[in-house]
Amino acid sequence: PFSGLPIPLKMLGQTKKGWLNTAGSRLFRDARSPFTNHFVQRLEAIGLIPIGQSTAPEFGFKNVSDATIYGDTRNPADLSRSAGGSSGGAAALVAAGIFPIAGASDGGGSIRIPASFNGLIGLKPTRGTMPVGPDGWRGWQGASISFGLTVSMRDTKTLFYTMRGTENAAPYQAPKTEWAHHEPSNRKLRIAFSTTSPVGSLVSKEAIHAVEEAVIFLTAQGHDVFEIKYPVNGDQLIRSYYQMNGAETAAMFENISTQLKRELTINDMELMTWGLYQYGQKLSASSYIHSLNTWDAAAVEMEKQFENFDLFLSPATAHPAPKIETDLQSDAIRAELATIEQRSKEEAATIIYQMFEKSLALSPYTQLANLTGQPAISLPTFTTKEDLPLGIQFMAAKGNEDLLFQIGYEFEHAQRFHLPKAYLER
Q: Which of 91, 96, 88 has the alpha carbon at shortest distance from 72?
């Protein structure tokens, strides 16, 4: 279906033999992949032609793309603003009209955040639906998954169904769903919504208004739309997410240190990465297990919630794209990170939470779907008075991508999408 169409690969987790494989890190500035991974093999099998690579923050830890070795990735809607992250380069390439589709991945919102900031469609599929390996099978314990960024529901749905299916060896296997018609279903849905930040942070009036506009539209379409209290403890969940980030970073650098035959230092990586590395080394095996159990409890709760409604609507991000010069940390936090190696586990946990606090306030809604394994999509239905894109997010139960496609088609067919200017001027 995509025969001959060029696609850029994300410079993180989408490897092609002989191509650079930096993961956005200066430590791997000259590294090249010895193989083409299964996700990219599948892209090629459906006719896509990898051409070039897109930028990402170091190891994908940020919701802005500002890796030291690449510099800032800017937003085509406003070059003074960030394209987001971690699939910021992919989003910028699509939003600029260079490619209609780009490889992307999402471990905490890294497809949906840049989709929101750039006026694109960003689907994070159900855990276990996409090809994985051989360069990693669990992807942040199932939180991370590769897919793409697009500008049409047709391409989103076709990409999903032609890419769907993972290896038998993969630890996560998604429930199977049948191909559905491209036309929207006539089924009327029960749609719950919330604009409350799950971590208690400030939500912009624009993000709330984006959801309110969507509620009016959906109600007019005949859907049963109602407000609910945010269904999980977001603060507890995000702390468990940071524990995973730390533990996975420590394990990754343990392997890298062995390969390089030397200890890694603060000079080998960016300060945020160093902080996660040191935090991860302080975590016990039991605390890591507890964090994963927290994810499972949230997944159980959300599946129970989806017995009462079909979709869960929220802002995709709480704010539009930040200015390039926005400091998402502070000098005080950077000073703490520089000495985190000497701190206790509890002190390190506090430093890590503070390190992410400002960036989390930009995008507190996306992480839930990663940790529960459920599918979610950001749709480009709103722009601010400054003409900045701001997406809305729908979540569904595992395997229910078709409901996300249905609702996306309804907005698209009603001409409710606000796509980048590169597509409106054609």
A: 88
pLDDT of residue 329: 95
d(CA 67, CA 400): 35
DSSP-assigned letters across all residues of 164-199: ----TT-S--PPP-----SSPP----EEEE--S-TT
Residue carrying structure tokens 């494989």: 21
Parent domain of 325: 6-424
> What gap in Å lies between CA 339 and CA 343, rounded to an integer?
7
Q: What is the mean pLDDT of the chain?
A: 97
- The full 3-state SS of 231-285, as one line of letters, equals CCCHHHHHHHHHHHHHHHHHHHHHHHHHHHCCCCCHHHCCHHHHHHHHHHHHCCH
Q: What are the backbone dihedrals phi and psi of residue 344, each rounded to the nearest 5 degrees, phi first?
A: -75, 170
Q: What is the pLDDT of residues 167-202, one digit of tens each?
A: 999 999 998 776 555 555 789 999 999 999 999 999
CATH classification at residue 73: 3.90.1300.10
Give yes or no for a contact between 161 and 188, defined as CB atoms under 8 angstroms apart.
no
Q: What amino acid occupies position 121?
A: I
Pairing, β 311-315 against β 190-193: parallel
Q: Give me the active site residues, please.
A: 10, 86, 110
Q: Which residue has the tokens 């078709």?
A: 402
Q: Could you tell me what percentage of the chain is helix, strand and coil, using 3-state DSSP and rounding each to the nearest 5? A: 40, 15, 45
1 falls within a domain: no
Comparing C-alpha atoms, which of 365, 417, 373, 380 is closest to residue 399?
373
State whether residue 24 is helix, strand or coil: coil
Residue pLDDT, tens place only, 77-107: 999 999 999 999 999 999 999 999 999 999 9
pLDDT at 285 over 70: yes
Q: Say which residue the tokens 């992919």 belong to.
A: 90
The CA R_g of the chain, rounded to the nearest whole Å, is 20
Residues 282/352, Cβ–Cβ less than 8 Å: no
Instruction: Give CA–CA dist 131/139, Å, rounded.
Output: 11
Number of domains making up the chain: 1
Residue 361 lies in a domain: yes
Written as one letter, the residue type at 355 is: M
Label each residue of 30-94 as H, E or C: CCECCCCCHHHHHHHHCCCEEEEEECCCHHHCCCCCCCCCCCCCEECCEEEEECCCCCHHHHHHH
